[in-house]
## 1
Amino acid sequence: MASPPQINVGLLGMGVVGGGVAAALIEQSSDIALKIGRPVKLKKILVRDLGKHAGANLPTGMLTTIPEEILNDNEIHVVVEAMGGTQPAAGYMKQALASGKHVVTANKEVIAKYGPGLIYLAHQKGVNLLYEASVGGGIPIVGSLMRDLAANNVHSIKGIINGTTNYILTRMANDGAEFSQALNEAQQRGYAEADPTNDVEGIDAVYKISILASLAFHRSVSPGDVYRQGITRLEPQDFRYASELGYAIKSLAIATLQNGNIKARVYPALLPLDHMLAKVDGVYNAVEVEGDLCGKVLFHGLGAGREPTTSAVMGDVIEASRSLVAQDESTKVSASQNRSSEPDSFDYADALTEDRETGSSENSIDDLICKYYLRLNVQDRPGVFAQIGKVLGDGEISIASVLQKDTNQAEQTAEIVITTHPSIESSVQASLKALTELDVVRNVSNVLRIEE
Ligand code: NAP
Ligand code: HSE
């Protein structure tokens, strides 16, 4: 097939991301033509509600509420999906790929849940499915894992990959902001997902780490395989205690390869204040990749918001357009790139309809070994530490430090913070259960892992 004289783009969605992409395609049209050697034009934009966009400065007829005007238009070569959610987004992407269009998406949920099937379809059709914007906003981490680091055996990925939670945690740590106030600000700035539960409960980060782990370890990691804990149980005193102990609190997404098994998890954790990731604040994201050849490589940049995400989406639009210009050669390149995250034995037909869950605290990380931070509310009377120490000792958990704060004389209670030496997760969980059964322990207020 001859490559088209002009590359036409259809855009699904014109919110935070789609609005930035529309503006870039319209305002930077001649710059893009220079980069590709061919004009790239925005032809149609799908929205739900035309009235909402009545004031938009767009050519007449560019907006539509009818998806077929993009999906069935043979003159549209690249479809950019910036709607969010799984359906109808995944269905539209499937339809676009099936009719031979290149697809660019910012949608981590669709890629995490339906990626293998869509990648297979793209491969079959010889087109690109590109999703740089799905992880890390403007940070080029997806393409780096697909191509630039592909020669490595990756040992681990550790990162801060949700801008909303990092913004919230930074405001809480540095300014003593309330959780709800900081979340509201993140929403105003366009960082948060349509349903911010996905951000604060770690679901968004689960999608992203499953995408990164699939690329890094060359096998399908489903969101359902990822252990998940959100940030909603963190309280102001956790930040004060962490700081006193020499730590920051960050929501981390981690995937490691141990004895051939991938262990992926998302949870808030304590990090030494001098750790590189501890210094990543606000809406910034950072991902540390450790490979056998490259050693430790750190990617750092703006993880959410209109401009950084537009940067990533437009990079993919330009790549898809270049593929169209170099039609024959690109078919081979795109197929081999997409193959990098294809597992050897995967039922692709099922994957097109399969919903691969959102991560869960039920997923086992029982054999994880790390240090722990425990915050307990206890009775303030003699012998309490002895009882707690015995339970931890019986579980082979060695105490590294103890702080006693915030005594309530009227109620005769105290808050104590214990840090441990490296311990096995299953022992810690069993000991926590035993601690809650002690009369002297009013409650276990928080449990956080300490990463080094
Ligand atoms: P958004 O502001 O809520 O915009 C969504 C857009 O999609 C709106 O224009 C909406 O139409 C349209 N839309 C939604 N459902 C539709 C449907 N069924 N039919 C037609 N149009 C529909 O969302 P966003 O923040 O731009 O996020 C879009 C995607 O980018 C998501 O997958 C998100 O995870 C991802 N992402 C976002 C960021 C970020 O910083 N915001 C960063 C990276 C990735 P109306 O305008 O008519 O309502
Ligand atoms: N809600 C996401 C975040 C947007 O805060 O990181 C970018 O994926």
## 2
Amino acid sequence: MEKLAPYAVTESVSRGRCHTEPPPRERGEFQRDRDRIIHSTAFRRLEYKTQVFINHEGDLFRTRLTHSLEVAQLSRSIARALGLNEELIEAVALAHDLGHTPFGHAGQDELNICMEAFGGFEHNLQSLRIVDTLEERYAAFDGLNLMFDTREGILKHCSPANAHTLGELGRRFIEKTRPSLEAQIVNLTDEMAYSNHDVDDGLRSGLLRLEQLDAVAIFAQCRREAEARWPGLAGRRLVHETIRRMIDALALDLITQTRANIAQKGVETLDDVYAAQTLAEYSGEMRQKLRELKTFLFDNLYRHERVLSMSDKARRVIADLFAAYMADPGLLPPQHRARAQSGSDSDKARAIADYIAGMTDRYAMKEHRRLHGEADGLRGDNGLL
Ligand code: MG
């Protein structure tokens, strides 16, 4: 690894792991975190979870797994440019979506509604629950026993009520301090990755048209640059040459502005990072351009009637499953059943939410068919589910 900046997270300043373990041989503590995440069950399931398009819509669309890999790639490149801890940032990026339900945001929103009377469902908090308690792999502890800084990065947001239950890790949400720069960067590379790959998937699916995107300044500008360099370029190559320029522009802007903020605020140590205002950010001009792109995607892709129709059906699957398990926990597999039957109604609901959140898209649909029969009307003629 290159020499780290003095404000990067290092093992020596880390608050370490909840359960003490012997130090790893021939690799660092954050490498060990990254390795544990890659070997986890929740990580493998990301392959079959929706980003925007349901997993079996097509083989070329992003899933949560490929999205997470793209976030890790962007994060590492930016971390290296800024002298930050690449191994920590890679671990955070690979784990950032572990807590997502099947069916993307529609699934998560519906599960939150189901859980309203029982403390709600937050996917960031769920990612933390997975690495802290739900993974069952090690003899000595539940979860993956990750480093404090990895867990801090995974918990991007958290409601004040839940923050109070998280001890040291929740403190920054109460005291309103910042997390490490590594955590701040992953927040932005997540958005950078999906804003670009959703353009690509939107065009590939035919839900977006190239001409529509000319109304978006950053796309139009990068397309013009690509066409000036490669006159006559068209089709998939034009799309890719445009998107790679957008990613490049965003990454360079983020690096430049963040570096300027660090210098201007006189940040010299990790404690300075915690105490400062948010340091990782785009320039004002780039923030505006990115906002325009995201608004475009929201209006034209995420709210496209075909995506909305898929989302409605996905919500029904989640709501039906939750209601069925609540009414009869006997429908759950043994270990989840034991948890659901051993405590209060709240414990039962949480055990069910954990089970549903862990499902892949296709497993949720299979389970829905098992409980509600084939004639559930979920295979609509739009081919989205
Ligand atoms: Mg993400």
